[in-house]
Design goal:
The complex is a heterodimer of chains A (670) and B (224). Chain A has 23 helices and four strands. Chain A is mainly α and 670 residues long. The radius of gyration of chain A is 27 Å and the shape is globular. Chain A starts with a helix and ends with a helix. With 224 residues, chain B is mainly α. Chain B has one domain. Chain B is built from seven helices and no strands. The longest helix of chain B has 29 residues. Classes of the chains: A mainly alpha (670), B mainly alpha (224). The interface between A and B is medium-sized, with 17 and 20 residues.
Chain lengths: 670, 224
């Protein structure tokens, strides 16, 4: 076992020890120790993986397993990248957790104990997913990840809605795991479940396609792809905010990791139509997710739908990579792959940051409904500041990180090399159009998020009681905000790092040079097409701000008086007159009404106390899930006629089955 | 005059034990009293132990002696003792009422024995062990014990049926092969013992919940 792999293994073991150690401590002490130590281990993980060379593959095994078996583990550039992502985000989330759960040590020590046990376990299981080099190890880690996060989601299990969300999450997680198990069963070579054996195998196109579809179902259920996304907007808001940040920022990426591992490592040669499937599913997911995000009234639910959107984008990027790779255009494939990995990292940062910020809002106001929030920028300047960076990144505005990766992805979409399938050349720009639309709509959703929550007037909430985030929380959010900015202004360095990764996945041709015009410019293809320099842009922005400030200072005479703003002739102004979350989402609701289920109560014009009410439903419930449950109920009704609930009868059934099988065996023996 | 192939004494003895086992299963099938049922079960266990010891002698495998001693101790003494204590504490002294009347059960049992022998015939051809025709009997006793579980209403006889089925399986294992590895036998013995304890706990639970050990009272799946 190489030093890097050993360090990673020890860090994962350290998380497990923290989980077990928290059992012997009191709730308060375990909070004080576990979270900072978790953060420390996360940083260790980042350092260990950053030092890992791209071309080298470290293999080894853990001496744990069933009946003397060992668990093979492996550290290559793909797992390294995702381990770095895990480490960077979990370090911030752990720091945040140290402060966030402070109140719980008095009010709910039992629940806090559960957090301090399952939180490190959750981290360790995600690390386990990333280093496992066999189907057994992978599935065990995958299931521990699902279960430990389930326990964290259902922390407030007294609330019915949270129990229901938890059940839905558990159900979908197990459906996905079932598909994955069948997928790995199909991948196994002569009963050998190690990935090393799976890599060597030669597969027919048919069986490889079945494996791909099973993998898509399994990983898609975890990533929240249409139509398996239903658990995501329920489970993420139900969890405590640091856990939502971790689930949205990191856990969903495990599905992406699994998909990449399956497509480019275990299967090896993806077929072109898999790419088409991925692009279609991913783009539809992205569009649907961002539309519903724009219509939510609950801040965490909005962010959860936005995660659906981003995972859709990532998977459509995987599809694009597959398409280019199968056409032999490895350079462009590398651009698409690097862009999507970049976006995965960026999404972890800004979504983690926004979930943490919304956690602070929730903690301070005890309110998740946008209709009650507003004007928080005055009482929570810190949170509002970092949330602004997060929203700008998510909306895809330069100079922050969201812009770079979405721009790179758009470049890959618009390239249109000559495919053997001519219709692909014509339809691929549609993907670019969807991407642009999604980007614009996510900007819209973010304006709504930030504008309603932080700007304007408070909507009936007593803001004098609201406090800003504590030091732990601030440091965590600053860390993520700094990451958003740095990833945005240093794209060439990030792309340089990702080059090594894409080469290991796509082959020696799979690298993309972005520094045609020197280190200052990000030029993905050639200087004729498009290039972007975040540093120059940042300089321009800074210069503009400075000059304005200087100009104002020079011309401003220094005298001012405070007076009420002109009220346009309406003497009585209340907070109810400002735009509401509902009102802001109205245009989207009108334009896309056909896509989602909408129930609306429009008051009568004569009504003296009018009350407008509308609710948006996820149409997949009525299209897909309700008929399914009906079918299940009908069939179980039929079955209950056979199951008369008598023990003697049950025994008789098994007896007759036994006799029938024995008779069959006797008949077949000559 | 056909050629007289003398069967060794030990082989004859084994056939005798096999026949006795079948007889005991039939007796259990027709027995209405629980206490007698337990005695028959104990007898079955002892004969099983004897037959294992006999096959050990026949095949010169000393480890089968341990197995025989284990069987004797566990199934001839401990389990019946536990069952007796259990019914003493539960106060189950009543007679067993069967779902199907006794003569019909016996007739069905005969059909099952024929079926079992028909089943064992091709398997016995494959088998090169000396313990050939005992396989049919072993299978028959498994099926008959299973039927006993079906035809009884009370929980205790059902459990005895289950344990008798396990005896039949054990007999099938020792007759079809030269006994199992010691580890497997120890494991099975432990399983049976643990199972017995669990059944004991369940008896009390059932009685506390339903005021009766009649499994017919549990026929509602909690719906009403």
């Amino acid at each position: 076992m190489s030093p890097a792999l050993l360090t990673v293994s020890l860090i994962l073991a350290g998380w497990l020890v923290l989980a077990l150690g928290s059992l012997v401590l009191t709730a308060d002490w375990s909070r004080r120790l576990v979270f900072p130590l978790c953060a420390l281990l996360s940083m260790g993980l980042v350092v260990a993986c950053l030092g890992h060379d791209h071309s080298s593959v470290d293999t080894g095994y853990w001496p744990i397993g069933l009946a003397g078996e060992v668990t093979p583990v492996r550290l290559d550039s793909l797992s390294c990248f995702f381990l770095i992502l895990l480490g960077l985000v979990s370090a911030a989330v752990s720091l945040y957790g140290a402060g966030y759960f402070r109140d719980m040590s008095q009010t709910q020590p039992e629940a806090l104990h559960r957090v301090t046990f399952f939180y490190p376990l959750f981290l360790a299981s995600m690390g386990g997913v990333l280093v496992a080099d066999g189907a057994y190890g992978f599935m065990v880690a995958w299931e521990v990840m699902a279960l430990s996060s389930w326990f964290l989601v259902t922390l407030d299990h007294d609330v019915l809605a949270i129990r229901q969300a938890g059940f839905l999450y558990l159900l979908m997680a197990h459906l996905g795991a079932l598909c994955l198990m069948v997928c790995f069963g199909w991948l196994a070579v002569n009963g050998d479940f190690d990935f090393s054996a799976m890599r060597q195998a030669h597969r027919e196109a048919g069986s490889a396609s079945v494996i791909f579809l099973l993998g898509l179902l399994g990983f898609g259920a975890k990533a929240g792809l249409l139509p398996l996304h239903v658990w995501l907007p329920e489970a993420h808001p139900a969890a405590p905010s640091p856990v939502s940040a971790l689930m949205s920022g990191v856990m969903l990426k495990m599905a992406l990791y699994g998909m990449l591992r399956l497509l480019f490592d275990l299967l090896g040669h993806p077929l072109w139509w898999w790419g088409v499937v991925l692009i279609v599913v991913g783009s539809l997911t992205a569009l649907f997710g961002v539309l519903l995000a724009a219509l939510q009234f609950d801040i965490k639910r909005l962010l959860a739908w936005s995660s659906v959107e981003n995972l859709g984008l990532l998977f459509s990027g995987v599809g694009l990579t597959v398409l280019f790779h199968s056409a032999g255009q490895d350079t462009v494939a590398a651009l698409a792959l690097a862009a999507l990995l970049y976006h995965a990292l960026n999404h972890s940062f800004f979504k983690g940051l926004l979930f943490l910020a919304s956690g602070s809002v929730l903690h301070a106001t005890r309110e998740r409904k946008m209709a009650k929030l507003g004007g928080l920028i005055r009482v929570m300047p810190w949170v509002a500041g970092v949330a602004l960076i997060g929203t700008l990144s998510l909306a895809g505005l330069p100079p922050f990180n969201g812009f770079v990766s979405e721009w790179l992805m758009l470049q890959a979409y618009l390239l249109r090399p000559d495919f053997p399938q001519a219709w692909l050349d014509m339809t691929l720009p549609l993907g670019a159009a969807v991407l642009a639309l999604v980007g614009a709509l996510s900007g819209y959703a973010m304006v709504k998020f930030y504008g309603i929550v932080f700007l304007g007037q408070s909507r009936g909430l007593d803001v004098t009681m609201v406090h800003d985030a504590g030091y732990w929380e601030r440091s965590a959010m600053l860390w993520l905000a700094a990451g958003c900015l740095l990833l945005g202004v240093l794209p060439n360095q990030v792309m340089g790092y990702l080059n090594g990764l894409t080469q290991t996945l796509l082959g020696p041709e799979g690298r993309v040079s972005v520094a045609h015009q020197g280190w200052l410019w990000l030029t993905p293809l050639s200087s004729q097409r498009a290039s972007y320099s975040p540093l120059i842009l940042l300089g321009l922005i800074a210069m503009g701000v400075l000059m304005t400030w200087w100009g104002v200072r020079r011309t401003f005479h220094g005298r001012y008086r405070r007076a009420p703003a002109w009220d346009c002739g309406y003497p009585a102004q209340t907070w109810r007159m400002q735009d509401s979350a509902d009102g802001f989402g109205q245009p989207i609701k009108q334009i896309f009404e056909g896509i989602f289920g909408l129930s609306r109560v429009i008051p009568d014009p004569q009504d003296p106390a009018p009350h407008y009410h509308s609710e948006v439903h996820d149409p997949f419930w009525s299209i897909l899930y309700k008929p399914l449950t009906h079918l299940l109920e009908r069939s179980s009704d039929l079955l209950s006629r056979v199951m008369r609930a008598r023990i003697a009868l049950y025994l008789l059934y098994s007896f007759l089955t036994l006799l029938g099988l024995l008779a069959l065996v006797t008949g077949s023996v000559p | 005059m056909p050629h007289w192939n003398p069967v060794p004494f030990a082989q004859q003895l084994l056939d005798l034990f096999a026949a006795l086992l079948l007889l005991i299963v039939f007796a259990m099938l027709s027995q209405r009293r629980i206490l007698t049922l337990i005695h028959l079960f104990a007898l079955q266990g002892m004969i099983l132990a004897l037959s294992i010891a006999d096959s050990a002698w026949l095949t010169h495998q000393p480890h089968l002696y341990y197995s025989a001693a284990l069987t004797l101790g566990l199934k001839g003494v401990i389990l019946p003792g536990l069952l007796r204590r259990l019914i003493g504490r539960l106060g189950v002294v009543w007679d067993v009422e069967t779902l199907i009347n006794i003569p019909t059960t016996m007739l069905l049992g005969i059909v099952l024995v024929i079926f079992a022998f028909n089943l064992a015939l091709p398997i016995a051809h494959f088998s090169h062990t000396i313990l050939r025709n005992t396989l049919g009997i072993a299978l028959a006793s498994v099926l008959l014990s299973f039927m006993m579980m079906i035809t009884r209403n009370k929980a205790v006889p059902q459990v005895i049926g289950f344990l008798a089925m396990e005896n039949g399986l054990f007999f099938a294992a020792t007759s079809a092969t030269y006994g199992m590895p010691m580890v497997v036998e120890l494991g099975v013995a432990l399983d049976v013992l643990v199972g017995m304890f669990i059944f004991g706990i369940f008896f009390f639970q059932i009685r506390d919940t339903f005021d009766s050990l009649d499994t017919r009272k549990m026929d509602h799946l909690g719906r009403d």
